[in-house]
Amino acid sequence: MDVDNSTPHEFVCEITIENFPYAVLTEFLQEPQNAIRIHAWDEEDCWSGQLEGQELANLLESTDQSWEEFCTETHRAFTSGRPYAVTSERKSRAQKPVLTLSWSRSSGSDGGAVDLGSLVLSKITLSGEAAIRAMKLALKHSTKLTGKRKSLTESLEKEKGGFREALQNAKEIGPVRQAEYQKIVSVATLLVNSKADYVKDALSGDAPA
């Protein structure tokens, strides 16, 4: 099956932000192959553009981790001469702060990146940390196109222990945490089962060697 090696993986997930885990995102950005595109708006304004991983990590570290300052600093970064497309649009004052993250991964050891297209999950709301975990899970399994094949179910089952442990660290082991965990698995499943049949085949073990 033909695979487009010229386009990197790209996932898009819309996240309603309450207490955004800047440290988690900063850690994710330490990997040089990860890049972030931001589309963020507060109650009034909307800015969008792209920042490279380390540059965004530095930006996050320079804020006091408040949503307002993050939006302000992001807008300043986009309008300070960097060659990024910047858009601004008016939003209703009733609009909750939303951060849309999309990140791409360059070619890995398999010799090429796979174009999965974009999947916008506007009806599933996760905390920032849970959404990032779901993205990382999806990214991890979508790149298993060579070597030993495992079914999506088996792969997700192996991840459950790690996710469950992380969610229980806050000692809130109850229906809310269990529901959050189920959302993580659901989002990751939707992402890896997005628009590319050859990715589904690879994850189910049916792809050609």
From TrEMBL:
Pfam families given in the database record: XRCC4
GO cellular component entries: nucleus
InterPro entries, per the entry: XRCC4-like_N_sf, XRCC4_N
GO BP annotations listed: double-strand break repair via nonhomologous end joining
Domain XRCC4 N-terminal: 22-121
Tree of life domain: Eukaryota
Keyword ATP-binding: no
Protein name: XRCC4 N-terminal domain-containing protein
Organism per entry: Hypsibius exemplaris
Native organism taxonomy: Eukaryota, Metazoa, Ecdysozoa, Tardigrada, Eutardigrada
